[in-house]
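agent> Task received from the user: take the single chain below, predict its 3D structure, and emit structure tokens. No templates, no multimer pairing.
agent> Plan: (1) validate residues, (2) run structure prediction, (3) serialize to tokens, (4) report one or two observations.
agent> Step 1 OK, no nonstandard residues flagged.
tool_call: predict_structure(input=
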Amino acid sequence: MSIFAVISHQLTRFTAPVIILASITAFIEPATFAWVKGDTQILVLGIIMLGMGMTLGKADYRILAQRPLDILVGAAAQYTIMPLVAIAVAKALDLSTGLTLGLVLVGTCPGGVSSNIMSFLAKGDVAFSVGMTTVSTLLAPVMTPLWMMYLIGETVDMDGWGMFKFMLLVTLLPVVIGSVCNMFFEHKPWFADVRAVMPGVAVLAFACIVGGVAAVHGHRFMESALVMLVAIAAHNIIGYILGYYSGALFGMDTAKKRTLAIEVGVQNAGLATGLSAKFFPTNAESAVATAVACVWHSVSGTVLGNLFAWWDKRKAQ
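)
tool_result: status=success, residues=317
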């Protein structure tokens, strides 16, 4: 399976172009991704989370035990900065109910599954990144519904308890299954082969989710394209800045500050897209906003990681 591992590595390196290509393809020829909806979309989302779980082993949980303060600061930053910035941006730009819903969904979701790769590109603390992603994902079934109910529960009809149960099934359960398999089979050659392929599978799955939304709602994109992009970009960039300075506030070194910036700023917008489709199926603006956020976060996170690396090279010269 070595050739598949190589392909998987390349797909993770070029996550952003793959997702953009899927979006454009779905926009031009919707039938290409029209099948990614309903239960199929939920299954695809579960595959992404299973792939994440398969990367988590005993060493990763030891990191959580050995670095509780770092992880606590990271989780607190993740689940305060992004939800509050999302609602603040929505109010500042006077976004419609649908766009507000989409932006807050993105803001209340855990860190993105590709943030570990971005932290590596940025010469950040990858172990810290893995720990933060793990904890924010494990907390998501509780934190995401709570924040959604608190921030927009009065303006949008939503089922917080249903969202909690759904997230347990679609996020936590696949992560736990993948992690348990990793701990039991980590020394088996066949499992190592499967694990090496899963990041690429996750990228393709993300592309399918975004493509599915673009296929169904792509024609609505131009209705609010400019304000949507401004809101998503502002939310994301402010997350990077506040994440970085949260690390500085607690005296973290450069590698940790970069990691915290990426972990806070890059959200699991694919999960937000799935939640939008499941719980707000009639709200096209929310679906489009979360799908656009998938693309934006993939592109901006990769760019930021490379900028950090470029800065290091420039200083070294």
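agent> Step 4: summary for the user.
The chain has one domain: 36-308.
agent> Done.
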